[in-house]
Amino acid sequence: MALQMDREALNIFLDRTFPQVAGQVRVQSLDERLLISRLSVDHQHLRPGGTVSGPAMFALADVTIYLAILARIGEVALAVTTNASIDFMRKPEAGRDLLAECRILKLGRVLAVGEVLIHSEGVEDPVARCSMTYSIPPKR
Amino acid sequence: MALQMDREALNIFLDRTFPQVAGQVRVQSLDERLLISRLSVDHQHLRPGGTVSGPAMFALADVTIYLAILARIGEVALAVTTNASIDFMRKPEAGRDLLAECRILKLGRVLAVGEVLIHSEGVEDPVARCSMTYSIPPKR
Amino acid sequence: MALQMDREALNIFLDRTFPQVAGQVRVQSLDERLLISRLSVDHQHLRPGGTVSGPAMFALADVTIYLAILARIGEVALAVTTNASIDFMRKPEAGRDLLAECRILKLGRVLAVGEVLIHSEGVEDPVARCSMTYSIPPKR
Amino acid sequence: MALQMDREALNIFLDRTFPQVAGQVRVQSLDERLLISRLSVDHQHLRPGGTVSGPAMFALADVTIYLAILARIGEVALAVTTNASIDFMRKPEAGRDLLAECRILKLGRVLAVGEVLIHSEGVEDPVARCSMTYSIPPKR
């Protein structure tokens, strides 16, 4: 499916709309098949023991799937998450950024489904897997 | 099942171990059947439009289920979330705290399962439902 | 919310529309808050060891939530499951029927969310928990 | 990870242990990265309208992930599903078999996580996505 927004447009949108994550999450690459985002891990994401917290990984998955949907339908839409399922499989490695690879599996008129695999940078085995459904509001 | 920690002990534990949410999340009531926690909603939890963000509700569910498990097994354990499923059903009402009601459905030797309903205070229909599995480390 | 179909109407609908489960699943009770269905367990639902299989419990949850939605919106609608999450928590007891208690948590214009607790009859601890989202087609 | 069972061994195991699905589900291909199984669709899997039912797709995902785990750890283990999450995204095409592609994302000492994409044969867009956690019993 043709993309409506490129990497730069998504990052500008991100800074403007999600000031909470500005400077932490970046779209790193994007094509019609795959969007990869990066979480620059710092102390605020960490749990005791030095690993990234579950909610920080959930937030990364959420914003990544949201951006991958916007890349396809454009900035106008106000999509909301209706359902999410996440498996935390391994501890992220301390001191490494997280990379989230997102594929959009369905982009319907009303519902979109995306899935994300999260890795510690440079480590092959994934730390988490997440799938989410977004509800897409009707066009005006 | 008999409780190992009471409301006050859980709140002290919360402040010491999760400084990120200190002062935001409190255990409000606790018995053998139900734990209710409160998220004091402020600007950092909000999305454009004045509603609480999905990741903030996920974090509330996560810490609430964690506390309900600790109430039963005591503070020694280092439980980790392995799986979570969450349905976002309605927009939280602007300007109201969120209450999370947690029931523990299973407390096994290795796995525990809890579920949470989240409401805007004073509103009957739930805004979100979440179930999570925690892995409980073996006793030393 | 007022009910559009009663227990008898749902059971007649079930026999007519789901011949695969005819005689196996019955609506046992129904009010505005709770629908309880029963799976008459026989050999076809069993796994080695004498317990009911996961897919048989999934099918029970699916039909139960579907019936609870129809009870509220009437038989005309052709709702489809879009998402399901299920936790298998304990082995069902051999030789006991399963009871599925269903609550509808949301009944929107487009999406409905229901949740089910499944018990072996006469046993307090639940064997499974399931939540599902149904997509409701637009009225013609 | 080295495989302990090949395609033929898995199919023999399937016929012996799951007589309910004998002749319906087959392992079609298998390597260290991917297991693909096939559901020969017939009338018993169908819903009104000619599409495969949700529970039949759940059962296909369940047995496929189970076989992919056994391929890695051998036939001795008695693994059980503890959690599943499934998204039904499109109607399967009438008159086509279903193919289930399974990847094992984690194979721990206690828990394994697998995920499956289900397609109608010859159709690119997936009809369903499923992830499951299996609990692996301790070795004797």
TrEMBL record, chains A, B, C, D:
InterPro entries: HotDog_dom_sf, PAAI_dom, Thioestr_dom. Its EC number is 3.1.2.-. Residues 49-123 form the Thioesterase domain. Keywords: Hydrolase. GO terms for molecular function: hydrolase activity. It is an enzyme of class 3 (hydrolase). This is PaaI family thioesterase.
